[in-house]
Amino acid sequence: MTAHFIALYLLASSIGLCTSKMPQIKEIPTDLEAVDGRDASLICKTTGVPHPKITWTHNGKISLPKRFRVLNSGSLHISNLQLEDSGEYTCYAENEFGSTMRSFNFTVRRHTEIMNDLERLAVIAGTKATFHCKVTHDKNLALRVFWLHNRKSINFDEEPRFIKTSDHSLIITKTTKMDSGIYTCHAETSLDETAASGALIVQDVTEPSQLKNIPKEVIGYSKENWKKREYY
Ligand SMILES: *[C@@H]1O[C@H](CO)[C@@H](O)[C@H](O)[C@H]1NC(C)=O
C-alpha cells in the first residue's frame, strides 16, 4: 500500500503534475488612460509554480527609466507620469516550465489645470463683477467647467443675472449684496479635476466705508490656498 503510494507520487512529480505549473497571465489592463504628473500601477496578475519572473517592456524597449519599478506583485509602478510614457506595454512571465506574455496600450493625457489665480473683487451693488478661469486640458478629452457660489453649484438657467462665457468666465451682470461670498471655478475631464476660487464683496453705495475694510480671511485665495482650506 505504502509502496504503491510512493510510486504514484514519484510518477506524478516526475511528469510535473503536483508541483510545476507553466506561467499564465490572468489579468492585465485594457485601454488604460491617466494624466501626467500622477503615479500609476500597471497590473500583471500571473499564476505559475514556481512563481514566474516578471519583466516589462515599453514599446519593445526592455531598459526603462528610473521612474519605472517592477513591484513584487508583478505590477509595473510608474511615478510622475510623462506624456512620452504612452504606448504599448508588454508583461512577460517566465519560469523553468515555460513563458508567456500579454500586451496592452496605455495613454498618458495632459492634466487639467487652472492657470490664473481667481480675482478677489469688491464692487458697488448694481454693477458688474467678472471672474476669469483660464483652463488648459487635454484636447482629446471633453472638458466640463462649472461655477460654485459658497460651494453651491450655480444654475445659469435659473439665474439670468449670471452668465458663463465661452472662455469659462463668470459674469454677474447686476450684483446684489446676496452675491457676496466665495466663487469657485471647477474644471474636470473623465480623468481628473481641479478647482480654484476667488471672492466677491458687494457693497451698497450708502456704506462706502466698508469697501476699505474687506476682511482678510474673505479675500486673497490663491489656487494653492484653496486646496488647503475647507471650502471645497
Ligand atoms: C496599441 O495601439 C497600436 C496603435 O494604435 C495598435 O497597432 C496595437 O495593436 C495596440 N496594441 C494592443 C495590444 O492593443
UniProtKB/TrEMBL annotation:
<dbReference type="InterPro" id="IPR036179">
    <property type="entry name" value="Ig-like_dom_sf"/>
</dbReference>
<keyword id="KW-0732">Signal</keyword>
<feature type="domain" description="Ig-like">
    <location>
        <begin position="23"/>
        <end position="107"/>
    </location>
</feature>
<dbReference type="GO" id="GO:0048468">
    <property type="term" value="P:cell development"/>
</dbReference>
<dbReference type="InterPro" id="IPR013098">
    <property type="entry name" value="Ig_I-set"/>
</dbReference>
<dbReference type="Pfam" id="PF07679">
    <property type="entry name" value="I-set"/>
</dbReference>
<keyword id="KW-0393">Immunoglobulin domain</keyword>
<dbReference type="InterPro" id="IPR007110">
    <property type="entry name" value="Ig-like_dom"/>
</dbReference>
<feature type="signal peptide">
    <location>
        <begin position="1"/>
        <end position="20"/>
    </location>
</feature>
<feature type="domain" description="Ig-like">
    <location>
        <begin position="112"/>
        <end position="197"/>
    </location>
</feature>
<dbReference type="InterPro" id="IPR003599">
    <property type="entry name" value="Ig_sub"/>
</dbReference>
<protein>
    <recommendedName>
        <fullName>Ig-like domain-containing protein</fullName>
    </recommendedName>
</protein>
<dbReference type="InterPro" id="IPR013783">
    <property type="entry name" value="Ig-like_fold"/>
</dbReference>
<dbReference type="InterPro" id="IPR003598">
    <property type="entry name" value="Ig_sub2"/>
</dbReference>
